[in-house]
């Protein structure tokens, strides 16, 4: 009977965790850009009150990144600037 209760408790905790943040912890470590296949930006929502950034690596693994990391802010800023320059050249 005790194992049934323990099993039910673990199922309940899995269900509760499913509605929370995808990234309970995030790294500020810099990851080489050639190693990143995609970056997902997840905004705040009712069950998670923090911004989340998930890097999908070329190996298929997902790594949670700290959205306030200096290197990530620089990558976002440079990406936005290159997009603006590309749009300007299309309009010219």
Describe the 3D structure.
The chain has 92 residues and is α+β, with helices and mostly antiparallel strands. The protein has one domain (23-91): OB fold (Dihydrolipoamide Acetyltransferase, E2P). It contains 2 helices and 3 strands; from the N terminus they run H-E-E-E-H. It has helices spanning 2-18, 70-91; strands spanning 36-42, 52-57, 62-65. The chain has a 3-stranded antiparallel sheet with strand order 1-2-3, with no helix packed on it. Strand 2 and strand 3 (62-65) form a beta hairpin. InterPro entries: Chemokine_b/g/d, Chemokine_CXC, Chemokine_IL8-like_dom, Interleukin_8-like_sf. Keywords: Cytokine. Residues 18-79 form the Chemokine interleukin-8-like domain. One of its GO terms (biological process) is immune response. It comes from Chiloscyllium punctatum.
**Strand percent estimate:** 15-25%
- What's the helix-strand series? HEEEH
Structural class: alpha+beta
Unreliable residue runs? 1-17
Number of strands: 3
Strand order of the largest sheet: 1-2-3
Largest sheet: 3 strands, antiparallel
Q: Please, what is the average pLDDT? A: 77
Spatial shape:
globular
How many H/I helical runs?
A: 2
**Total domain count:** 1
What is the percent of helical residues?
Answer: 40-55%
Protein name: Chemokine interleukin-8-like domain-containing protein
GO molecular function, one term: chemokine activity
Keywords: Cytokine
Organism: Chiloscyllium punctatum (Brownbanded bambooshark)
